[in-house]
Write a structure and sequence with these properties.
The structure holds two protein chains of two kinds. Chain A is mostly helical. Chain A has two helices and no strands. The radius of gyration of chain B is 22 Å and the shape is globular. In chain B, α7 packs antiparallel against α18, α8 crosses α16 and α11 crosses α16. The C terminus of chain B is likely disordered. The chains are: A mainly alpha, B mainly alpha.
Chain lengths: 64, 485
């Protein structure tokens, strides 16, 4: 039960780390269809966040 | 227009859906706590697809560029916080019969004063957020009615219509009507965004706006602190709003709430695309000139771009979706305000209120609050409409120590919480005024000496937390005065 919570915490933390690391995505290239990296990269992370959060939610719900 | 009438009918019929006694507050405001997973997903999602998404953020991007893309990390991370805290809140609330955040604070800290303060802050913080929805509905009507009269008249008439529809809708429908229409509007909005993106992608290309406005491609390095402080505080703030708590508590069980919340970042993809509309408009001459001819305000960016790009029938559908997108959230917000007023303020003074009287007061109060919200429409330059929501965030996030703190520990001192809340609210309002030189609001950044520009909400939350923690630490040796839950 404890380890499941720890894994869930890590899964939730990943998007936080990604978004807080602003210098890693504050750039123009590589572009995607003319859209700068800054804009599309953060949009893609929305999808990744949903997957990670959902896994975390399932783990947290499976206690007891 | 025909669709518009259909929707209104649906909204009012929603009141009769899944029978319940509409004269009790619980029914009107929480739809009898019988909403399932899918509907909760849409209901909380409805709080996202508001005028904030299709008016405030695109207009901020239009005016200032990449900094207002903070909305994307905000939308992701807020649900990270939510899946940790909200199921806990749901369980406590379910066990003890709480229906508002202030109920919880009262129980957790055994303090009526703190609970009432939290209720007052909740009510006030919703006002600028509702004002933003009114601005959004007004923007749609302005573009729809263009040419009927001169620009000023059209914009004023639009404001009046938006306001009347909103007041009537909330009064008659309650949360049931709101949920049903939330599903409809989200489908309309998603379809419209995709249509515009496809047309733009095959026309000028999605990147043309960035070519026309290269400075918007990335974030200026001086704004990085502003960027993360904006998305962090906004992420913390969303689930402190009374309407968001209301949405969570209307779910059927804690784990369903958690799972449906976890998937909500997907909803944010539409928000990200809409934010980019604020840049795309620079590459579309028809849309740019339409915005200019209607006064040049950024709030008109999305409706103008839609009208310039899509055929007229599709524009009608899109406008309907966006109009409802302001209407439904505003109704949900007003309902949650009314809830706080009756349960956590009036009932403290008049405990013998009958359920029927309680509901009656709530319904009328929700109409009255809309007039107060309207006042906020006039303190903000409409291009910077996003400041309305950000100001609400500065106010509401100060209830974080009491709410999330109360979910984590009972060791916080209630007097420390009260002082922290009151002081940080006053400092927040002062900094907001000072940052804007006491004129119309166009920024929420205040330069902290030596650290560069931060979102005011971050500065004041830090102050608040410092007061609460120091106070709680200092007063502990005197014994656990606040331990009973």
């Amino acid at each position: 039960m404890k380890s499941k919570d720890a894994v869930a915490a890590v899964l939730i933390a990943i998007p936080f780390i990604a978004y807080f690391a602003i210098p890693t995505y504050n750039m123009v290239n590589p572009q995607w269809g003319g859209v700068p990296f800054f804009w599309w990269y953060q949009t893609v992370w929305l999808g990744i966040s949903a997957v990670l959060f959902f896994c975390a939610a399932v783990l947290m719900g499976r206690k007891s | 227009m025909a669709l518009f009438v259909l929707f209104v009918a649906l909204g009012f019929l929603g009141g009769r859906w899944r029978k319940g006694d509409m004269n009790t507050l619980n029914e009107w405001a929480l739809a009898g706590k019988r909403l399932g997973t899918g509907l909760v997903w849409f209901l909380v999602g409805a709080d996202l697809y508001t005028a904030y998404t299709f008016v405030a953020i695109p207009s901020g991007v239009f005016a200032k560029g990449a900094i207002y893309f903070y909305a994307v990390p905000y939308v992701s991370l807020t649900f990270g916080f939510a899946i940790i805290f909200m199921p806990k809140l749901w369980r406590v609330a379910h066990e003890k019969g709480y229906i508002t955040g202030a109920d919880f604070v009262k129980g957790a800290f055994n303090s009526r004063t703190l609970a009432m303060l939290v209720a007052v802050v909740g009510i006030v913080a919703e006002l600028p957020y509702i004002a933003l929805q009114i601005v959004g509905m007004q923007a749609i009507l302005t573009v729809m009615l263009q040419g009927v009269g001169d620009v000023t008249t059209v914009s004023e008439v639009s404001l009046v219509i938006a306001f009347i529809v909103l007041a009537a809708f909330t009064y008659t429908s309650g949360l049931r009507g709101a949920t049903l229409t939330a599903v409809l509007k989200d489908i309309l909005i998603f379809a419209s965004i995709i249509a515009v993106i496809i047309v733009v992608a095959f026309g000028t290309g999605l990147g043309a706006g960035f070519t026309a406005k290269p400075a918007y491609s990335t974030l200026a390095s001086t704004l990085q602190n502003g960027y993360w402080s904006l998305f962090l505080v906004s992420a913390l703030a969303l689930y402190l709003y009374p309407h968001a708590i209301n949405g969570v508590l209307s779910g059927q069980d804690a784990e369903k709430v958690r799972k449906s919340t976890a998937l909500l970042p997907i909803y944010g993809v539409g928000l990200a695309l809409l934010a980019m509309f604020g840049v795309m408009v620079y590459a579309n001459s028809a849309a740019s000139s339409l915005v200019k001819s209607l006064g040049g305000s950024g709030v008109l960016v999305v409706p103008s771009l839609i009208q310039s790009v899509l055929p007229s029938w599709a524009t009608g559908i899109a406008f309907l979706g966006i109009f409802i997108g302001g209407l439904v959230p505003a109704a949900i917000m007003a309902i949650s305000q009314a809830n706080l007023l009756t349960r956590n303020i009036i009932k403290e003074f008049r405990p013998n209120l009958t359920p029927a009287a309680e509901t009656q007061i709530s319904k009328w109060a929700s109409v009255a609050f809309k007039f107060l919200a309207l006042a906020f429409v006039f303190v903000v330059n409409s291009t910077y409409a996003v400041q309305l929501q950000l100001f609400g965030g500065i106010l509401i996030v100060q209830t974080l120590p009491a709410m999330f703190g109360g979910l984590l520990t009972h060791r916080l001192n209630k007097n420390g919480l009260i002082v922290g809340l009151v002081v940080s609210e006053f400092v927040g309002v002062y900094l907001m005024e000072a940052a804007n030189n006491f004129t119309t609001w166009s920024t929420t950044f205040y330069s902290t000496y030596g650290f560069g520009a931060f979102f005011i909400g971050a500065t004041t939350l830090a102050l608040n937390l410092a007061i609460v923690l120091v106070w709680s630490a200092v007063s502990r040796p005197k014994g656990p005065t606040q331990a009973q839950g």
